[in-house]
Design a protein that fits this description.
With 472 residues, the chain is an alpha/beta fold. Helices cover 30% and strands 16% of the residues. A hairpin with a 4-residue loop joins β2 (110-113) and β3 (118-121). The longest helix is centred in the C-terminal third of the chain and has 25 residues, at 335-359.
Length: 472
């Protein structure tokens, strides 16, 4: 029996199906499936973490003003960056043509926090309260010196667009813990300027499209095109999907195609999500002390604080990978006021998320990551004044913190030189970071691969070492 469609098939489906978003939704196949290509189970060894919440600070936060205190820069403030420190290393076009590269000490005070004594900036008082939960890595490095390649590298393991994002790799390798929600959810702080964040950053690349991230938005419809249009009841939607499934299955018997199977699963998940997502994002029943912990912004949908609260709710409901993006850290000028504002928006909520996960018994199985794509220079970009200056991009060394999910708490790892320019001990490359994160999730980064264009690809390309020193 053949099935014939008259006119444009896409238009027919959209008019018949209304706004269910079958062409826009990314999702998972039903059932927690293992997809490691070596034929083993999804996990290669026991996992320390079940899920990841990545608090991505887009634009490159200044490690010198937040995590990596360098008194020497204050002593040498305004003097020239020594050539023996720079060693002829590449600069961006934004400061590479400056006739002078004056050193800029941080205007912010630093002090130790917690029993571990981790030294943090005065801009991070709430993060200081969770210092004993954190592993602060001060020795990350990357080859990327500009935002597009830098963010792409951190999210996909390659500076070039087209590779799967980390969340897509995890969904491909491990499947889902929840049959009513996407395995990979993305939220972007609303109304923030800064470098553009393109959907390919949470895309599936050459993996099947069902593995790409689903973006949640603030407002009435968290997922676009998911709700029923006016006049369509849930029973009517169920009837339509049943008929559509039968048509797809008829086509599938004639022409076996995994894309048709994926489409059927997409429609069914979308139907289940219609019930699950409104409940997951409804914070009206959260007690007052929770809002107080996350801060006043947590009551405003779409803010970073509100997204952190939603991240905890999604983690409770089994979402595997939750990616928050907070733009605005690209402080080439007016750093003092700019970074202060960014910390006011993020410090309390980031710390609250860790505290909240801990008190609910979720932190030990949830890996929380805070950081950006690279760091900032120890010298001033543009004119250095008494109360204002900027810092350029710096890929040679930058900082990030991790908590929970098998990470050793209350420690710092890696050392940069007194100038804050080069790494002198325990450098951590992006591929090493990814290899370590996959290891915590029970995955051997060399075995999670996908064959494409004649070779097997992986998140860590052909590099990466697990850093056992930061594991609990």
């Amino acid at each position: 029996m053949s099935v014939r469609f008259h006119g444009d098939r896409r238009g027919w489906l959209q008019s018949f199906g209304g706004g269910i978003g079958i062409w826009a939704l990314a999702d998972l196949l039903s059932g927690p499936t293992a997809r490691a290509v070596d034929g083993s189970s999804g996990m290669h060894f026991p996992a320390r973490a079940r899920r990841v919440i990545w608090l991505f600070q887009s634009g490159g936060p200044s490690q010198l003003d937040l995590f990596d205190h360098k008194p020497l820069l204050n002593e040498k403030h305004g003097t020239e960056l020594p050539s023996e420190v720079r060693m002829g290393q590449r600069l961006t076009a934004m400061s590479g043509n400056q006739s002078s590269l004056p050193l800029a000490g941080s205007p912010f005070a630093f002090r130790p926090h917690g029993r571990c004594g981790t030294v943090l900036s005065e801009l991070l008082p709430h993060t200081g309260e969770i210092a004993d939960e954190l592993c602060v890595v001060r020795s990350l490095y990357t080859e990327a010196i500009n935002h597009g390649p830098g963010v792409t590298y951190m999210q996909t393991g390659s500076q070039f667009p087209g590779r799967p994002s980390m969340g897509a790799w995890l969904d491909y390798g491990l499947g889902s813990d929840n049959q009513e929600l996407p395995s990979f959810v993305v939220m972007v702080t609303k109304d923030k300027g800064g470098q553009p964040l393109l959907s390919r950053l949470w895309g599936s690349g050459f993996l099947p499209s069902r593995h790409q991230g689903v973006r949640f938005r603030s407002g009435k419809d968290p997922v676009l095109y998911l709700g029923n249009p006016d006049g369509i009841s849930r029973a009517g939607r169920r009837s339509m999907l049943t008929a559509l499934k039968e048509l797809h299955e008829l086509r599938l018997r004639e022409h076996p195609d995994p894309l048709i199977e994926t489409r059927i699963a997409q429609h069914e998940l979308a139907f289940r999500m219609q019930r699950a997502i409104p409940e997951a994002v409804d914070v009206s029943q959260e007690p007052e002390h929770v809002f107080d912990m996350y801060g006043p912004d947590s009551r405003t949908p779409g803010t970073y604080a509100a997204n952190c609260l939603l991240a905890r709710r999604l983690a409770e409901r089994g979402v595997r990978f939750i990616q928050l993006y907070h733009p605005g850290w690209d402080q080439h000028g007016s750093l003092v006021s700019g970074i202060r504002r960014q910390c006011q928006e993020t410090d309390q909520a980031s710390a609250a998320l860790v505290k909240d996960l801990r008190q609910r018994g979720l932190l030990d199985e949830t890996l929380v990551i805070w950081g950006g794509e690279f760091g900032r220079t120890n010298y001033c970009q543009g004119r250095l004044t008494a109360d204002s200056f900027g810092r350029d991009h710096h890929p040679r060394c930058f900082s990030m913190w991790l908590a929970g999910g098998g990470i050793r708490p209350g420690m710092t790892w890696g050392t940069t030189d007194p100038w804050g320019y080069n790494i002198v001990e325990n450098g951590l490359h992006i591929h090493d970071l990814h290899a370590t994160l996959l290891h915590l999730l029970g995955i051997d980064h060399e075995r999670l691969t996908y064959r494409y264009q004649g070779r097997r690809f992986r998140l860590t390309d052909v590099h990466g070492q697990v850093v056992s020193d930061i594991l609990a």
